[in-house]
User: Which sequence fits this backbone?
């Protein structure tokens, strides 16, 4: 079959889950022989956190917006302008990974400038602002085809919103994420102020959705049992405003007697360079993924591929692909449950994770190459249906 011209659109240049998904998918589609272009909004001089083997086009924006609504609107308009400048209609597939780029494509479709677009819903957020809520809704309602990275969200889209969505999961790069220590690992640990541990790692920054406050409370219990333990909270680049929640976390840390900073009991790294992440996973004694809501939880697979045990929320979508042989379970609404699961993982108590058989079998189920092939199947079916509708 002829290769497809595919445009993948992502809302940011920062290492968020949806952006990682976009770049991994772009690489895998390129490896299959397709002509892929990634579109991303960026301020002048800003670039994606990771190099891509395909063409990357930046939609120019400024940092002058004073509100989330203004920021989102500016990015939608930047996407539209850049897409028009690069003949959006000439792509076989236009694929939005988020609500911002989805709205740009929805507007172009409403204007008759493109035939349609694909939208991947990783997860949905709750917005009190009616305009943000409307933008989020339009980005999936106006899509020609909606995809989700988990069956959980595909069911949610159907049952709650009446949208028929297909599941096309994430993958994991088992070449990049490996238990084998690199020569730079020790230097990265020293730079970040990570000591001998044990180390509890959380990836994704400080957010209510990530359940950081409950994790902090649980970690205080871990520290009482293991006084040398450190909690490392990595990442956190986000377009949404989490400052109020972060302040509540810092305030509670002080009340619990937990100091924050390099070489302290809690290390908050902020956004990190991409090259540091494999070392960070390998340095951890356990990954805590006790989120209240996730689209998939890609870092779970990355941690397991790095040989690091995982404590995961005993809720979907984690329950779709994990079991007792691949993680320790915790009730994300119960601080004691989180603390107990972390201590079991750190002390090797209870049902141990089977890194010899179960974890390799799990990782084998999720590859970016397979994800790309499934995406292409969806793209071609959509194009075939579109062609039939013309005749």
Assistant:
């Amino acid at each position: 079959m002829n290769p497809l011209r595919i445009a993948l659109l992502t809302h940011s240049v920062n290492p968020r889950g949806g952006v990682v998904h976009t770049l991994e998918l772009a690489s895998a589609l390129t490896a299959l022989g397709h002509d892929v272009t990634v579109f991303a909004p960026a301020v002048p001089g800003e670039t994606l956190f990771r190099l891509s083997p395909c063409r990357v086009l930046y939609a120019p924006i400024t940092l002058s917006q004073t509100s989330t609504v203004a920021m989102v609107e500016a990015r939608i308009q930047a996407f539209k302008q850049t897409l028009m400048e690069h003949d959006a209609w000439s792509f076989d597939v236009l694929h939005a990974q988020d609500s911002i780029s989805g709205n740009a494509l929805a507007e172009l479709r409403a204007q008759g400038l493109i035939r349609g677009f694909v939208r991947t819903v990783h997860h949905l957020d709750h917005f009190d602002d009616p305009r943000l809520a409307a933008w989020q809704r339009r980005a999936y309602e106006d899509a020609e085809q909606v995809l989700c990275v988990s069956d959980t969200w595909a069911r949610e889209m159907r049952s709650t919103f009446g949208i028929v969505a297909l599941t096309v999961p994430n993958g994991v790069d088992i070449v990049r994420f490996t238990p084998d220590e690199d020569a730079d690992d020790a230097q990265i640990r020293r730079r970040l102020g990570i000591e001998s541990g044990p180390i509890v790692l959380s990836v994704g920054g400080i957010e209510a959705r990530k359940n950081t406050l409950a994790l902090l409370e649980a970690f205080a219990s871990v520290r009482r049992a293991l006084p040398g333990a450190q909690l490392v909270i990595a990442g956190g680049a986000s377009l949404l405003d989490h400052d109020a929640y972060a302040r509540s976390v810092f305030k509670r840390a002080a009340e619990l007697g937990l100091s924050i900073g390099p070489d302290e009991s809690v290390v908050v790294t902020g956004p990190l360079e991409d090259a540091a992440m494999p070392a960070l996973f390998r340095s951890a004694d356990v990954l805590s993924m006790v989120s209240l809501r996730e689209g998939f939880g890609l870092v779970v697979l990355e941690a397991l591929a790095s040989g690091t045990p995982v404590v995961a929320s005993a809720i979907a979508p984690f329950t779709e692909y994990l079991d007792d042989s691949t993680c320790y379970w915790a009730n994300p609404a119960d601080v004691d449950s989180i603390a107990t699961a972390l201590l079991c993982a750190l002390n090797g108590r209870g049902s141990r994770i089977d890194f010899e058989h179960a974890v390799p079998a799990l990782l084998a189920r999720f590859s970016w190459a397979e994800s790309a092939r499934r995406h292409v199947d969806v793209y071609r079916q959509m194009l075939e249906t579109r062609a039939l509708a013309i005749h």
